[in-house]
Amino acid sequence: MDYTPRYIGLYQSGRLKEIANLLEDKLSSCRLCPHKCGTNRHKGEKGICRSGILPVVSSYGPHFGEEPPLVGYGGSGTIFFTNCNMACIFCQNYDISHLGYGKEVTFEELADMMIYLQRRGCHNINFVTPTHMIYPIIKSLEIAIPRGLNIPLVYNSGGYDSSETLRLLEGVFDIYMPDFKYADGEVARRLSGVKNYPEVAKEAVSEMYAQVGDLFIDSRGIAKYGLMVRHLVLPENMAGSFEVVEFLSGISKNLYLNIMDQYRPVYEAYREPAIARRTRLEEVMEVVNHAKKLGMKRVIY
Questions:
Q1: Which pLDDT value is given to residue 1?
Q2: Which residues does the chain have with pLDDT short of 70?
Q3: Residue 197 domain-assigned (yes or no)
Q4: What residues does 299 pair with on adjacent strands?
Q5: Is 32 domain-assigned?
Q6: What is the pLDDT of residue 271?
Q7: How much is the pTM?
Q8: Is there a contact between 49 and 100 (Cβ–Cβ < 8 Å)?
């Protein structure tokens, strides 16, 4: 099956430019994400994500450690953005998300990265932590598309996304890959510094699914479009994993779900005694087995 990303049509119709303009307007009193900080990013004011107008990139390149349908044989073309709209005390990329490791680049340079990754043979452009960088992503797409960009785009976020902003983006991203981190809002506040996480993530994931549906994988095993969800199992069931899986199973039994076992206590995880150790295999398998009992057919771990 030949697949043409929908963002190409958006560019040709002028809709992509409209989206860029609408997002730009939101930056004068920033409300791109659920924090709705109200900072004027045009004037250099920094909100919770500590970001301005231009993209800040920590690294980019082919990635072979992502989910198999993204990696294929050419790798997933990852672009890691600096900073984050969440403040997870156990973030494994804390040098990027908390300490701000990265370099500010122009829209043209970000477009160059996309074209480079496509030419390297990557199967997709995988924007890691795009929530606060969505405006520069769209501006850079306006440059990259007429230069030949034509592979799927991946929105790889922490799940703390505004459903209002996501609705503006319909047709831009082929693959949504959010985390669904927590079932308990108080735990989310303590561990990640966000309010109402479960409610926000439920709305966001539902909107993502409405836009792209179940994950479609071609005959070569390469993902073309659809929803993938990640859930990191925390020690002592701090993530409320059973409840998370139950919600996701209600969206679709064919939802592609990665139940992750790689939690380890880094950065400031010691502040919470319950997560000051690695997750045990039996804790992960309990979640996997629960998902399968619920009838979920595409669970990896």
A1: 64
A2: 1
A3: yes
A4: 257
A5: yes
A6: 94
A7: 0.97
A8: no
The CATH number for 234's domain is 3.20.20.70
At how many degrees (to 10) do helices 241-251 and 281-293 cross? 30
For 207-241, the pLDDT digits (tens) are: 999 999 999 999 999 999 999 999 999 999 999 99
Determine the pLDDT at residue 2. Answer: 85
Burial string for 3-41 (b: 16+ CB within 10 Å, else e) reads eebbbbebbeeebbeebbeebeebbeebbbbbbebebeb
DSSP states of 77-136 as a string? EEEEES--S---TT-TTHHHHTT--SEE--HHHHHHHHHHHHHTT-S-EEEES-GGGHHH
CA distance 279 to 292: 20
- Asked whether residue 1 is domain-assigned, the answer is no
- By residue range, what is the domain housing residue 244? 6-300
Give the number of domains in the chain: 1
- Residue 22, domain member (yes or no): yes
